[in-house]
Fold:
Amino acid sequence: MASEQCEHGDVELLGTEKGERGVNKYFRCRKCGAVLVLSEEGVLYEVPAAREQLGSR
Ligand SMILES: [Zn+2]
Structure:
């Protein structure tokens, strides 16, 4: 089964960005390539990898 959910256990910090409500931290999962956004309020957003094709291996 290839559709197993990734737990994003191995992420790298891409950088931070100041928003109106605080600082957002951007991470990328090394396993599946999904981008994770952690807001200052502690809310985690996930951006699916399929949408963000960087073309780098
Ligand atoms: Zn992942």
